[in-house]
Amino acid sequence: MEKIALRSARTVVVPSRGLAHELEAQYPELVRGKIRIIPNPVDVDSFSRPQDYSSSPILSQFNIPPDALVLSFCALGGFERKGLRVVLEALAGFEDRCVHLLVIGGSPGEIREYQMLSDQLGVGESVHFAGLQRDIRPYLWASRAFVFPSAYEGFALACLQAAAAGLPLITTSINGIEEFIKDGVNGWIVDRTARSVQAAIRDAGSSLERTALLGEAAKRDVQVYRQEIFQARWLELLQRECHSHA
């Protein structure tokens, strides 16, 4: 059915450059000249940290020291593919346990599995599982950086939401992020290895002031994903398609 749909379509819209390349590689004859890239929207204003926000309730809930380097990781599920194991292995390299990780999302079974892994790696006291949340924003706002060494994404919305929350990204160059991330400017591009992730975390912790500046850059750069821009791009595409086939 995929081939039939692509052969019949006049235009194929994808949310990321990476997905465009995948389609071009798999169906070169069917999509040549048809692909348009319109990134998915991000509710930028909603994810912006309020000036009166205090991280104290969340830090107190998980007994996190106020001077700790707090990272966040967020996924509905699929912790293995999205790189949580790699992050935990990276944390195991910190002797003083100054780095804490908030894990947002996951099924109860998956959370139990990774709690056991955290304990096995000796980082159980530094890894905090918040579970599925109706509102992930307070957990992002309590963090200083967002870590997400995923193996594959169609469009890594969680990363862009974290950027809108003012967090620099520690992430692999995945679909939807490869065109956003600027290494050393709004985050860190890492390999999907514990050593690479650990190096980025160390860099983030070496200067919290610089890390905050990278977060501000991420927040500025994510403005191009605003909902009104998404709507304008679709409207322009639809008008062009209607005029060309009138």
Q: What is this entry, summarized?
A:
This protein has 246 residues and is α/β, with parallel strands linked by helices.
Which terms summarize this structure?
two-stranded parallel ribbon; 6-stranded parallel sheet; 8 strands; 246 residues; globular; Rossmann fold; alpha/beta; 2 domains
Category from helices, strands and their pairing: alpha/beta
The unreliable regions are none
> What is the total domain count?
2
Total E-strand runs: 8
As a percent range, the share of strand residues is 5-15%
By CATH reckoning, the class of the largest domain would read Alpha Beta
Listing every helix as H and every strand as E from the N terminus to the C terminus, the arrangement reads HEHHEHHEHHEHEHEHEEHHH
Cα end-to-end separation: 28 Å
Largest beta sheet, briefly?
Answer: 6 strands, parallel
Tally of contiguous helical segments: 13
Query: How are the strands ordered across the major sheet?
Result: 5-4-3-6-7-8
Over all CA atoms, what is the radius of gyration? 20 Å
Overall shape: it is globular
**CATH fold field value of the largest domain:** Rossmann fold
Overall mean pLDDT:
95
- The CATH architecture of the largest domain would be 3-Layer(aba) Sandwich
Q: Please bin the fraction of helical residues.
A: 40-55%
What's the CATH H-level homologous superfamily of the largest domain? Glycogen Phosphorylase B
